[in-house]
Specification:
This protein has an eight-stranded mixed beta sheet with strand order 2-6-3-5-4-7-1-8. The protein contains two helices and eight strands; from the N terminus they run E-E-E-H-E-E-E-E-H-E. The chain starts with a strand and ends in a 9-residue tail after the last strand. By secondary structure, the protein is mainly β. It is 10% helix and 47% strand.
């Protein structure tokens, strides 16, 4: 049996940009991606704490060290600059492995600096 479990979580990041005319996705500071083991094109769920919106998209690399969290394309309508969001990815793994698996979670400050 396979089970879907939390793999990576960025808790309470601040949206810094919103680009409706971009093709799609979420740009995440590459340092933050590394910190939570996200890779480019990985599917993520985004939970907007500020307005309750929820969506799914894929990750693109944002400028390293910039603190960027940019919702692009249709996702840009789901959040405003300054909104707080939770960004998560999940992994499918065998049930027994999932019992001991520990997700990577980071808690950025209000400027998206990692603590």
């Amino acid at each position: 049996m396979q089970i879907n479990v939390l793999k990576s979580k960025i808790h309470r990041a601040t949206v810094t940009e919103s680009d409706l005319n971009y093709i799609g996705s979420i740009a995440i500071d590459e340092d933050m991606m590394d910190a939570v083991n996200l890779i480019e094109n990985e599917v993520v769920s985004i939970y907007n704490i500020t307005n309750g919106e929820r969506l799914e998209t894929y990750v693109i690399k944002g400028e390293r060290g910039s603190g960027i969290i940019s919702l692009n394309g249709a996702a840009a309508r789901k959040a405003a600059i300054g909104d707080k969001v939770i960004i998560v990815s999940y992994a499918l793994m065998p049930f027994e492995e999932a019992k001991s698996f520990k997700p990577v979670i980071v808690f950025p400050d209000d400027n998206n600096n990692l603590k």
